[in-house]
Amino acid sequence: MVFVAYLVLYLIAFIMGSCVASFLNVVIYRLPRKLSFVKGRSFCPNCRQTLKIYDMVPVFSWFWLKGRCRFCNEKISARYPLVEAMGGFAALFCVALWGYSLAALTVFAAVMILVAVAFIDHDTFEIPNGLVFALLIPAVLSIGAFPDVSILERCIGIATLSGPMLLMNLLVRDSFGGGDIKLIAVCGFLLGWKLLLVGGFVALLLAGGYGVYLLKTRKKDRKDHIAFGPHLAAGMIFALYLGRPVLDYYLSLFI
């Protein structure tokens, strides 16, 4: 009976998370194109036909439509159900770790914003200031959600990585984008300097590995730039979910 109750709670979390992520798809598409993501109904990017409610059921509709628009038969990117599934699992993991609480809501909101940052930066090489400002909301909520991270740790976190990144940018032009620096500063307040270092380390590993892959496959050369935002977002998401146990395990090795 308890198992069924938990199953229902997790299913509700997944559905709610995937619905939020469905809206996130709208933000990812419209924000870089300077379109309003709060007004106007969803439409097919190819034929501009307004979509029906049953065309927008998170995850399910894409498979039901076999990945094509019902009006023009144009392929629908698999990114849409992927983002929706990511939102569902993000909410599920939040509930599994923190229950239905302020902590779960804070982490979920931060993760959704970081997912939007990752995809938009991948597409445009830009991180919209609006998303950075939006991340301030869960960053402030985290003060109450995670009181074990002191205000001092959070303030130190603001400059822990953004400071060196800014300095490197001054020494080597275009080392990092301004959006990356602003994003990492807000993440520093959200996480505190300790967990920020965990997330930053993961981000560097991911970016380095991806860079090596691009060089080996000759898709990029040494002079080309890659978007750091997706790797940065992934590192911060890792730190939000797993940063504390990873840090505790690492520190236990020296005790």
Automatic annotation (TrEMBL):
Span of domain Prepilin type IV endopeptidase peptidase: 110-212
Residues forming coiled coils: none
The keyword Membrane belongs to this UniProt entry's keyword annotation: yes
Swiss-Prot/TrEMBL GO biological process terms: signal peptide processing
Lineage of the species this protein comes from: Bacteria, Bacillati, Bacillota, Clostridia, Christensenellales
Span of domain Prepilin peptidase A24 N-terminal: 15-96
Signal peptide range in chain numbering: none
GO cellular component entries: plasma membrane
MF GO annotations: aspartic-type endopeptidase activity
Keyword terms of this UniProt record: Cell membrane, Membrane, Transmembrane, Transmembrane helix
Stretches that traverse the bilayer: 6-31, 89-120, 126-144, 183-213, 225-243
Localization per record: Cell membrane
Membrane topology, record value: Multi-pass membrane protein
Key word Ribonucleoprotein present: no
Protein name (database record): Prepilin peptidase
Family membership noted in the UniProt record: Belongs to the peptidase A24 family.
Chief localization: membrane
Any Pfam family: A24_N_bact
